[in-house]
Amino acid sequence: MSSNTLILSNGIEMPIIGLGTSGASSDILIAAVKTAINTGYRLIDTAAAYNNEEAIGEAICQCISENLVKREDLFIVTKCPTPFLHPNKQESALKESLQKLKLGYIDCYLAHNPCPTDLTVKVEDIWKGLEMLYEKKLAKSIGLSNFNLEKIQRILNIAKIPIHCVQIELHLYFQQKEMLEFCRKHKIAIMAYAPLGAPNRSFYKRFCIFCNQSSVIPFEDPLIIELAKKYLKTPAQILLRHLIQSNLNVIPKSTNEARIKENFDVFDFKLSGEEMEKLNSVKQNSRTFWLDFLIGHLEDPFKDERQKQME
Ligand SMILES: NC(=O)c1ccc[n+]([C@@H]2O[C@H](COP(=O)([O-])OP(=O)(O)OC[C@H]3O[C@@H](n4cnc5c(N)ncnc54)[C@H](OP(=O)(O)O)[C@@H]3O)[C@@H](O)[C@H]2O)c1
Questions:
Q1: 261-278 pLDDT, tens per residue?
Q2: 112 annotated ligand binder
Q3: How far is Cα 163 from Cα 10, in angstroms, rounded to an integer?
Q4: Whose CA is nearest to atom 11 of ligand 1?
């Protein structure tokens, strides 16, 4: 295994770093994706819900026709949106995404959350729908996003195809140790979303009544600043290196050329075992992405955590 990829349980290589694209407007995203591919990124993370698949498809097309990259060297991730989380609807949702992305297959297809609009659909049904897409070779790997351990276990109980990967909020202040251990045991790769702690997502912090209001952003952590000085790297690079060195995929979002390059420049140094240990022991906060729109849904993945916050 090269240090720049993770091997999924079906043998497919997944780049360890990718470009996040949520909240990035289409007009600037074409240039951002092209910068990323030119820099060496091979994984792009999107979702039908981000409304930017067409721009990403356009950027990929341009990069392929300019011979910057081959399709088979890219690893594109997209997600099935809530209203389509239904075994009879997931194929049409994926086909629509593929059409926008101008691709014949997706490298990884994720259920965006465990809460279908159709309340008769259970998480097990969502998985059966994903398995069908995998068997039809429309998706080279399949996985889940924003599922909790209980729901992942329910899927493992019925799965014919293993869960290849889960995409979850994970960063210095929310390291999800129990989830990591569980996924390692079951050979499920982890994609860490918001790996920089989503510093500019004031929306979530402001409107989420259950968030720890005193939370600070990981960039400003004294240990991160100390390590940045020691290695002549930026705080973002230390945050990403910590996760990569723990064999976690990271998908930092940026549309800024310099920061896209900066975030990829994390392979020329190594944190010591002691430094990794210190970073792993940093005091933890609550999650940032509570997905409050799922409150009240039977499959709300964060219901128990919300309750604990209230106690
Ligand atoms: N599955 C899900 O439900 C879910 C939820 C959230 C996110 N995601 C995925 O994960 C990706 C990343 O998460 P995120 O966008 O919330 O948070 P993030 O990657 O932790 O942080 C992105 C923010 O940090 C800034 N930034 C990026 N690199 C920087 C650097 N080197 N120095 C300083 N600031 C920097 C970006 O601004 P600039 O663009 O101006 O650089 C942006 O505002 C998303 O884009 C999306 O693809 C998935």
A1: 999 999 999 999 999 999
A2: yes
A3: 10
A4: 20
